[in-house]
What does this fold into?
Amino acid sequence: MSLEVDPRRAGRLPFIAAWGIMLLMAGMSLLTAFLRMGVWAPVLEFTIAALQVAILFILFMRLKGPPSLRWVFAASGFFWLLFLYGLSMTDYATRHSWPTQRVEIENPRD
Amino acid sequence: MPSSRTIAPEIQYASLAQQGETAQIGMWVFLVNETLFFGALIFTYFLYRLSYPSEFAVAAKDAVLWCGSTNLVLLLTSSLTMVLAINAAAQGRRSEMVAWLIATLALGFLFLGFKGYEYFEDVRDKVVPGLNFEMKPGEAPAGELFWVFYWVATGLHAVHLSIGIGLILYMLLWRIRRGEITPTYYAPLEVVAIYWSFVDAVWLFLYPCIYLVGRS
It folds into this structure.
């Protein structure tokens, strides 16, 4: 099956197949929520979501294809998001008691 | 009603291809901003979920799973119908393009219908922070934070989807009707399709954040 995404030549089949795969992945995500997988359940669910979004971006939003500036902007969005998360986590990840213990602040007047 | 007409590029472009590519890049620049907008929102969610895991798990059980799941299927399907509309436009199948766009529109309205019903159920369930919130037995105050995220995130998503519906209507009732979408120039429709699929992508991340928490 050709993965042609140029709208002038593309057939329907690759997109219908991608849609079917994304639905299947959505079903898997729903299933993992009901299995007793502990902390691995959200890891799996968000990995599935990221894969679905990758399919959507590459095929449905036509990132696949000849080299284009579109890739530069899509990649910049991804990297800015990484910077946002990374720099924000330098605060939270270095907090002494976060996230497992809560700090009870004593009232200095007591 | 003209089925198509000769379109010349705007004065600043050498060709229609260059004009179309520029329009698409413009949409991608906008989507970078949107990525940071929704990214920051989801980051905040993770911080609170890590801080209050059990409170979030208990609170999220009140989210209407079947509504969220149905809406996920509707949005994924609407991205498919949208991309099929682009292919039909590029290959000169005008009536098929219109049919796929109407299908996309119908799926978008269905999404909003289910979302409206879900909001109705949420109000009845008293999970509206600041207006109508009631802690149930076994719930902790931090659970309210989950519902703040729920209303902000799904509300903003619904606003984005409504804008997408408006853009499709503009394409159908104005650009296509005037014959401005042709096999040689369909970039305006592609720009709308890129936006529509991005809104779908946001829901793909909101779905596990809201509906799959605390189910096992």
In short: Strands of chain B lie at 127-128, 132-133. The first strand of chain B starts at residue 127 and ends at 128. DSSP finds six helices and two strands in chain B.
